[in-house]
User: Fold LMA2L protein from Nothocercus nigrocapillus.
Amino acid sequence: MVRNLNHDTFLVIRYVKRRLTVMIDIDGKHEWRDCIDVPGVRLPRGYYFGTSSVTGDLSDNHDIISLKLYQLTVERTPEEEKRDREVFLPVVDNLKLPGLEAPLEPMSGLALFLIVFFSLVALVFAIVIGIIVYNKWQEQSRKHFY
Assistant:
């Protein structure tokens, strides 16, 4: 949507009271459209803001012309201030990350019984097949001596 346009495109990233909002202006009309709005974002303090225009595709080229950064002054209660200082890793409330699934439920008694039963049947079947193959091999080896 932002390729080969005759005007600049703009992006606004706002983080206020644990809410991350991203808005875009790709039409050049100074009308902002919502891109994402994520509540419950907890970011740690004391880090730096960085940008990159690298897309990973050699045929694409983006230029970051300017950045304007503002620190918003928002009144906070002492409880909110303490809670924000305790954040050490970036976290989003109610967001499931890949690889962090809930623990599996234990198997029911019937499922466990069926697994054990069919495992034993397969083991007995393998032993019977092994005995038959061994007997055939013994019988073939005796015939070679005659």
